[in-house]
Amino acid sequence: MVKFKRSWIIPIGISIFIIAIAFFLAIKVPSNETDKLSELPFKVDQLLIKVLIKEKESFSSPVNIMDISDEEIVVGLEPKYLLDIASVSDTSFSLKPGQTKTVNIDFKSYLEEQDISQSPGAYIGALEVISGENRQIIPMIVEIETKDVLFDSNLDINAKGKEVQRGEYASIQVNLFNLKRMGMTNVKMDYFVKDIMGNIIMTESESVVVVTRATFTKTIEIPKNFNPGDYVFVAQAGYADSIGTSTLLFKVPGDEEQTGGLLKDYCEENDCWTGGIILIIAILMFIIIGYFFFGAFLLEKAKGITKRKELEADIKNEIEADIKEDIERGLLKTIPHFKSKTKRISIREKKKVFRREKVTKKPIRCASRKDIEKRQLKEKINGWKAKGYDTTVLEEKLKGRKIDSSIKDNLKNQIKEWKAKGYDTKILEEKLRNL
Q: Helix, strand, or coil here: 68?
């Protein structure tokens, strides 16, 4: 296991900090609607324009536009996809920094000059605000109902932030109200999903029984090939000549908004060379620092193993020398047996065990000079006895018994005879004198 050292904290911490900064600069989280709007030189006080008007009626909705840049700008307004229903009081105007312009958007369900009236229902469009290359699209929903509405509804979606991912389902709760208290009635419900240009994407119809109020849920599926953008769910309640409408705006985000964005997506619209270069340099620094620290660790490990082996060899030689010396001195007869609970035991531990056994083991008494002489005399006697000599006196003396004078005389005579025959009797004569 690699042992972490305090000296590694500073370089590793610096590397992680640099990589974090580089990652933050190089990887951009996709901007939401608010981030994009903050880059515009103007600000519109409404993100959705939704109005409800009756047949053959009109309505005017004010919109405030403010110059939030440091220079004078020219702003143009254009209602899209609602040309016969919506119009603006000023299509183009200039603003100085800090100035605000109020523009009225007029909605009409009836063209009096041409005697044309719009059918009840939900109409979808947008207000496009343009200043140079900057533009902002504001969805507009116009609900046109009959003058006498018998049944009406409101809608609520369970999606977070009113966003429905592609390939997923969304549940919309419909609350239907019997406004005139007509008792139990069958009401025809028509459902539509329209895009911002007013095109019908999905449609469905059903009959609902309602007494005073009915609550039910509609589930819509957003296919994977759905185009990202703003969509409107329309619920239209019809009974006889009465039509009541209710709408709900929801958004289908794109792939970059679902995944959180990648470096590639960011670089397609921004200059990311600086962040990319910093990220590459940080990664290289981290690799280099890691290589040197890992290499230093391996080198230190190798040196430690070599030094340990040399130390073990020195201790082993020292133990063997001590054991050999103690055997020669007679303190030990055999090499001590080293016991351990584990299968492997270090040389240092063996040395400790050896020294402990050496101290506690009862030493063997060394042979004295007298013992050595007795042993040599015994060997001589055995040799003479094998040759047929009478060694009774010497054996008695060797056993420590007293010897009579007659035995000594006999031994002297015997020594003379052996000497006359040419035998070496110096040792016997010496022993005889000692007797």
A: coil
**Cross-strand bridge partners of residue 138:** 127
Exposure b/e, 395-411, CB count within 10 A at least 16 = b: eebeeeeeeeeeeeeeb
Q: What's the helix, strand, coil split of the chain in %, to 5?
A: 35, 30, 30
Cα-based angle 345, 346, 348 (whole degrees, multiple of 5):
130
Quick one: average pLDDT of 298-319?
72
Calculate mean pLDDT across residues 360-385.
63
Q: Report whether 276 contacts 263 (CB < 8 A).
A: yes
Q: How far apart are CA 174 and CA 190, in angstroms?
A: 12
How many residues would you count in the chain? 435
How many CB atoms within 10 Å of residue 331? Answer: 15
Q: Domain ranges in the chain?
A: 47-265, 381-434
Q: How far is CA 421 from CA 38, 77, 152, 170, 386, in A?
A: 140, 156, 158, 137, 18
Strand 100-108, strand 86-88: pairing: antiparallel
State the residue for tokens 């496009």: 128
* 331 or 230, which is more confident: 230
Cα separations (Å) of 127 from 78, 172, 197, 217?
6, 26, 11, 31
Q: Which residues are CB-contacts of 62 (< 8 A; sequence separation ≥ 6)?
A: 102, 103, 104, 105
Residues in CB range of 78: below 8 A, 6 or more apart: 88, 91, 127, 128, 130
Tell the residue number behind the tokens 């040395």, with chain if given: 351
Cα–Cα distance measured from residue 44 to residue 63, given in angstroms and rounded to the nearest whole number: 7
| Residue 379, pLDDT score | 76
Q: Which of 237, 124, 243 is nearest to 191 (CA)?
A: 237
Instruction: Report pTM.
Output: 0.55
* Gap between the Cα atoms of 430 and 295, Å rounded: 81
Domain 47-265 indexed as CATH 1.20.1560.10: no
